[in-house]
Specification:
The chain has 62 residues and is α+β, with helices and mostly antiparallel strands. The chain is built from two helices and three strands.
Length: 62
Amino acid sequence: MSEQFAVVRNIEGQYSVWPLGRDVPSGWDATGFEGPREHCLEHIGEVWTDLRPLSVVAAERR
């Protein structure tokens, strides 16, 4: 069985993968999507379409 990961997201809307069974680092939250690393990366590619931090997006809207 391949190693399992969780998709995590920070306050800036940036995504990453994190090994299941390890505490998620401060400032990051699990999104609920879990699976093999490649599946997690595919999911991130589908949901993270604007790579700019949310603070940059908000500043551009002002």
